[in-house]
Amino acid sequence: MTQPERRRQPRLRALKAGRAILPGGHSTFDCMIRNLSPVGAKVTFESTVDIPQEFRLRFEDGTTHDCAVKWRKERELGVEFLDALAG
Fold first, then answer.
1. Which regions span the lipid bilayer (predicted)?
2. Segment 24-63, tens digit of pLDDT
């Protein structure tokens, strides 16, 4: 039985380099964006242990999004783009 789709926007597969910038800007973590929609993404890390519930995600093209973690696994996060909610 398949899980019902809970996302407001469908996500498209992606493979983009990114960086999580923690509050204060003093710590960063490299990551890969694995899928993407206008309102969120699935992001993979070496480990998600040090990633807080909210952080800024910067894409390789310089685009940034303020993110909130919606779900968490050992190496993956599902994030919602907080700035997309404001628009």
1. none
2. 999 999 999 999 999 999 999 999 999 999 999 999 999 9
State the SS3 of the chain: CCCCCCCCCCCEEEEEEEEEECCCCCCEEEEEEEEEECCEEEEECCCCCCCCCEEEEEECCCCEEEEEEEEECCCEEEEEEHHHHHC
pTM: 0.83
Domains of the chain: 12-86 (2.40.10.220)
